[in-house]
Amino acid sequence: MIHVQHLTKTYDDLSRGKFVAVDRISFSVQPGEIFGLLGPNGAGKTTVLRILSTVLSSTSGIATVAGFDVSADPAEVRKRIGFVSNNTAIYDRMTAWEMVEYFGRLHGMPKKELTDRVETLFEQLRMNEFRDTPGAKMSTGMKQKVSIARAMVHDPPVLIFDEATLGLDVLVARNLLSVIRDLRESGKCLIFSTHIMSEVERLCDRIAIMHRGKILDSGTLSELRSRHSENDFEELFFGLLSNHESAENNELAHDVGAGI
Ligand SMILES: Nc1ncnc2c1ncn2[C@@H]1O[C@H](COP(=O)(O)OP(=O)(O)OP(=O)(O)O)[C@@H](O)[C@H]1O
Which of 41, 200, 215, 241 to mutate for ligand 1's pocket (most ligand atoms within 8 Å of CB)? Predict the structure, then answer.
């Protein structure tokens, strides 16, 4: 469903010059699977997800969603993808219902189909008690549900959650994780990015650990544990990060020594 191969993104940064934010990464995600992108701030997660959702172009490499190339067929990709982040704008004066319906209209959904779909979503995400509440009066949890509903209104087979639990209290975050599990059961293809280790441990079928633009390793939790002979996931994660940093520093020292 999602295929990423040797994907690279270089930014022209005023202070850092050419900066490689994503460095030749590859991964695939299948329907009915939750794929976790785990990495510290600045690892490159958001950049990858923004390329997949067609809002950012890559420098090189290939990314396809449901068989459509993100650069060649962005409109086809957008039809098949929903994006949930932690900073989706919620309009103060629109009600929950109006906001979700509005996004359905943007996707060109016919009236009857749209009304049925919004009914189903409000039921599924338990949003009926605040369907007429305007954005200005919503709690953080209500706003997050509206963000999810509007990302799902066109029933995309792929859903991307970018640091979606950031700033949520534990109860709301827990509820979101359970919604994501339900989506997996319904066969959706899901990518979940976070810097919180316990979330990927509890939720994800496969995990890619990202740092400084690279995927350091990926696999199921048990594959990662056995490959690195480490049962404690936190130890495993920090071990991978610090090995990578030492290797990069050694490479740099070698290049400086050789006058490169
Ligand atoms: N427009 C830009 N111009 C220059 N550098 C950028 C730009 N956008 C992102 N970066 C840099 O690219 C790197 C990766 O950023 P990105 O936001 O993808 O990381 P992330 O893993 O999502 O981290 P975070 O959780 O902090 O958002 C960072 O060093 C960031 O400063």
Answer: 41
